[in-house]
Amino acid sequence: MKPRAKLHWFDVLWNIALYLLAAVMLFPFFWLLTTSLKPAQYILAVPPQIIPTVITWDNYAQVFQKANVLLLYFNTLRFALVSTACIVLTSSIAGYVFAKYKFPCKNILFVLMISTMMVPFQSYMIPLFLMMVRLHAVDTYIGLQLPYLIQAMGTFFMRQNFESFPDVYMEAARIEGASEFTIMRRISLPNLQSAMGGLAIFVFASTWDNLIWPLIITNTSKNYVWQLGLAVFQQRYTVDYGQFTAAAMVVVAPVIIFFIIFRTRIMSGITLTGIK
Questions:
Q1: pLDDT at residue 74, rounded to an integer
Q2: 258 and 225 co-located in one domain
Q3: Dihedral sign, CA of 67, 251, 136, 120?
Q4: Rg for the chain, CA atoms, rounded
Q5: Residues 42, 80: one domain?
């Protein structure tokens, strides 16, 4: 009976530790929410008020007055959704080819592709910008979107999943006379929907939160995404924290909702990657 008692208390302590860790990680989001609901005189009060005694929605009203919220949402959603669809499609095809076919220099090409993951974006953003200048794509949607049609990480992600997919299903389909495209479309990809869903969520979240490339390539507010739209609420020397946190909540809310709805798909996608 003693081992069972020890195991029971260990589980209780472990769960308590996990809940405390979750509370610590969620506290910044809670602070962001409460700050966005505080009047200006209470935001920097000492001692700080964790739970506001006075709640105001004026900060959110100012967000909708100062920024073109619908245009920012449209630009950001278009950028994130097109990036997600293209990267999931190209990564699935490339990952399938690298995992299931043999061709000359396959391993060398794969290593070269993976090596690009170690190159920080800051090291090639200037050449990339100069390329967009030559294409006359500066301050256009095309210039914003072009660098986010393929992704080495996505290819690696899908290749790891296709490696675990049994070849016997593909061989059986070939015996039945199915073409390679039919095998990929009707057999391989449908069995890896969880991995594709996990990749889609990661790509969507990263592009939604992207700041550096939109900051470089766009000049006018008509092409701004939400991360640039936050600059509207930041002055040169001071910051209106109430309006800024309200705008930040408007930005992050869709991602949080997206995560809550598809959190099981995220976890299953992580489990299936084969990355240890």
A1: 93
A2: yes
A3: positive
A4: 24
A5: no
DSSP secondary structure code for residue 136 in this structure? T
Q: Report yes or no on whether pTM surpasses 0.85.
A: no
Is residue 239 helix, strand or coil?
A: strand
Range of the domain at 45: 1-55
Please name the residues in contact with 124: beta carbons below 8 A apart, sequence gap of 6 or more. none
The whole-angstrom distance between residue 73's C-alpha and the CA centroid of its chain comes to 16
Mark whether 249 and 118 lie in a shared domain. Answer: yes
For the chain, 276 residues long, the average pLDDT of each consecutive 10-residue run is: 58 87 89 88 82 86 86 92 93 89 88 88 90 92 92 90 84 84 84 83 88 90 87 68 87 79 62 47
Helices (H) and strands (E) in the chain, counts: 15, 0
Q: Are residues 80 and 216 in the same domain?
A: yes
Q: Structurally, how many domains does the chain consist of?
A: 2
Taking phi first (over 0 means left), then psi (-120 to 50 degrees means alpha), and beta for anything else, what does residue 105 get? left
What is the pLDDT at residue 201?
A: 83
**CA distance to 6, 68, 128, 218, per residue, from 143 (Å):** 60, 22, 10, 8
**Same domain, yes or no, for 31 and 63?**
no
